[in-house]
Amino acid sequence: MSLTLDEVLSSLQVVALPMKTRFRGLQTRETALIKGAAGWGEFAAFTEYDAAESLPWLNSAIECATQSLDRPLRELIPVNATVPASDDEAEIEKILSWYPGVNTVKIKVGTGIKEDLVRIARVRKYLPKAKLRVDVNGTWSVDEAVFNIRTIYGEVAGEYLEYVEQPVASIEELRELKQRLIVDVKIAGDEVLRKAKDPFAIDLTDAIDILMLKVSPLGGLQRSLQLATHHRLPTVVSSALESVVGLSYGLQLAAQLPELEYACGLATNSLFVEDLGELAIVDGAMRVGTHLVEPERLERFKVSPERLEWWRNRIKEIWRLREAQ
Ligand SMILES: [Mg+2]
């Protein structure tokens, strides 16, 4: 089952959700919903992405809006807190308070090792027992990664460092890093998968230990499950800063993976002033299920007619690529 372009455009709702803290350079998250027989699907490709990069995101939204779901293998998904690259101690404490009962924290790093160490130490001060993940978004060279990971491990995180996410950009660099890294720290791959032209064609052997799965950029739940099977690595399901609709779909993915040993990065709606519906963290976990969109919020956060028109044109452009495939 699928949707026609007319059905996508006629059901399209675009919202701008204000954020409590700047994340990924954004203070407002613009995202879109489309509706099909199974309910809403979220098309959340960041606005700077071109049509080719946005296509899997649209495919994920259409799949979500049209397909009924298999029975979940689990009901509760443990989640991590997400700390942006902030250097304000009071803000870090405040951000951590948005994640009740959470004992895993993902910290954005790569803004300079001194600031990174201070940020990690602050998180440790407030949650001394929490497992820590740092996300570099591929910005280090191999030399920097060897030094920085050893320093983070040795000086502030120690055994609490669960993994380092995408420390360097390419598969070749990841492989070299793993050979040169003398500390026993796991490496997770994110961009290496979701920015790959064909994520099935890449060989991740000896490059990473953990695979990040993001349902929207990977083209949907079914494709994400297939990628997990194909690459045979432990996985972490993470969000792409979606609203309740996309996050619920990520929870469904986490609920359908045969194994799930890590907390998931699906609690990023804590960074919104208000989400489109209720999806709360209870004792460090989120519940799998249909989390409703509040029509009043959809109305309140809707974008201007000009922005709506921009999104309509964007979808038409992506549709041409979709049909060409
Ligand atoms: Mg990442």
Short description:
The protein has about 325 residues and is α/β, with parallel strands linked by helices. It has helices at about 5-10, 50-65, 90-95, 115-125, 140-155, 170-180, 190-195, 220-230, 245-255, 295-300, 305-325, and strands spanning about 15-25, 25-35, 40-45, 75-80, 80-85, 105-110, 130-135, 160-165, 185-190, 210-215, 235, 285. A 7-stranded parallel beta sheet has the order 5-6-7-8-9-10-11.
How would you describe the overall organization of this protein?
This protein is α/β, with parallel strands linked by helices. It folds into two domains: 5-70 and 296-324, Enolase-like, N-terminal domain (Enolase-like, domain 1, 2-Layer Sandwich); 76-294, Enolase-like C-terminal domain (TIM Barrel), CATH 3.20.20.120. Helices cover 38% and strands 19% of the residues. The protein has eleven helices and twelve strands. The strands form three sheets. A seven-stranded parallel β-sheet has the order 5-6-7-8-9-10-11. It has a three-stranded antiparallel β-sheet with strand order 1-2-3, with helices on both faces. α4 packs parallel to α5 (142-157) and α8 (221-231) runs parallel beside α9. The protein is globular and about 55 Å long. The protein starts with a helix and ends with a helix. Residues 135, 137, 165-166, 190 line the site of magnesium ion (MG). Magnesium ion binds at residues 135, 137, 165-166, 190.
